[in-house]
Amino acid sequence: MKIAPADFGKILLPAAALFFFFSCGIKKPPAPPEKIFPPAVKDFKVMARDRCAELSWKYPGLELPDKYRIERTEQAGGDAAGQGMEKVFETSGKEVGLQDCTLQAGFEYGYAVIGVSQSGFAGEPGKTAWINVPLIPSAPENFQARPGDKFVDLSWSAAPGLAYNIYRSTQADQFLGRPINPGPVSEDKYPDAGLDNGKEYFYCLRSDLLQKNYPQLESACAALSATPVDLIPPARTRGLAVTLTDQGVLLRWFNSPEPDLLGYLVYRKRPGADAWNQLTPEPIKDNQYFDRQAKKLKGGFEYAVSALDNAPSKNQGPRSQAGRISVP
Predict the structure, then answer these.
(1) pTM higher than 0.85 for the full model?
(2) Which class is domain 141-226?
(3) Engineered SS bond to 226: which of 10, 85, 152, 233, CB 3.0-4.6 Å?
């Protein structure tokens, strides 16, 4: 079969295309830059507590690095411009923090965090953060707590040149986040209000050395726990009315508005007697009581009622005004 010159190009061009396709293969899209060179971390923060530097940061990329390399520069005498000893830490790319507990007094420390990709390439280093450790502050002394109704009053012995931060938790030895005080406390006391009665709270008090141009330097914890307790008794019971019936003496009174009311206690005595006799062994819920025994005893009687709350201390309010009656 002969091929005309006009048809030769129609056959040659598809064949050339197939040859190019099979010989070159299919190319993959280029890898994202952050897979090769991780971007610099953001929100890098360093704070010093006791002999530890606590580092935290955020990674802005989509692909986590294989690991982080944390480079520490150590300067003696607080000379950040000079060259000092260097130390390197490493942590997993899934971590966003590190604790370095090898600090010594009299040194300044600079930290920089660098992401390292799965390919082993170091990314862009972030800004170096510096802390100064002229001394290691001692934990506060004489830390005490006085619990009250929905509050705990804290006190301690303050030292010259130091401020204080107070941390609170509902679990022992877990003091995460910010202190409960809005700013460092320079006094020797702090009221912690708005708490729940009957709930145990754990406190960590740290001495705080404030430094210009450097993060604050905190001490180790002085720790204790306290449980707020309701010590306020209910108000006086009002509106006691005493009525004689065929079966005995009926007492009625106004309901107490106390939200933590447990019940009422009813008392009786003879006119002129000093001691009241409690008629109800346990608090009663109703705002009335029927004294059948008075019909048998006969004579004059005085009655009073007091409210009781459900606090652990079972606070009892003052007795009502006495209601008097004579039983023939």
Answers:
(1) no
(2) mainly beta
(3) 152
